[in-house]
Structure prediction request, 167 residues.
Amino acid sequence: MKESDKYTSWQLIVLISLRILIGWHLLYEGITKLINPNWTSAGFLMESKWILSGFSQWIISNPGILNFVDFLNTWGLTAIGLGLIVGLFTRTAAISGAILLLIYYLNNPPLIGLEYSVPMEGNYLIVSKTLIEAVALFVLVVFPTDSVAGLDVFIYRFKNRKNRRGK
Prediction:
């Protein structure tokens, strides 16, 4: 019995929809950073008020490292988003996306006593959309959307054929 056979079609459709929607959000965030020649993560990092604030200040104080972080952020969001949308290396993309979003969250969490100079979108206390999206990506890691829809299906089929020939 395949892992995906344990779930109803509707459950899989909802999980795949969640994967594609989060993928779209991350891809769009990456592309908007890519096409804006003036974009930098410096403003976000300057707002860091919590456990990663010292690390964020260190990044800002080193222009070469800031450029590298900007590159990783832009292309990471783009690659993760594409991976989730087309279903290629889905679990790797979901884990990478969740980790990236948790880093964002740990830089600027909505906690009592932390004041940010840039107004936040919405009103949050502890739980923000960033945290919810990170947890949703972890949900996608443990459910078999990669073996049901997307380019990973072809990889699984290729591996299965190869394994059957080897026996």
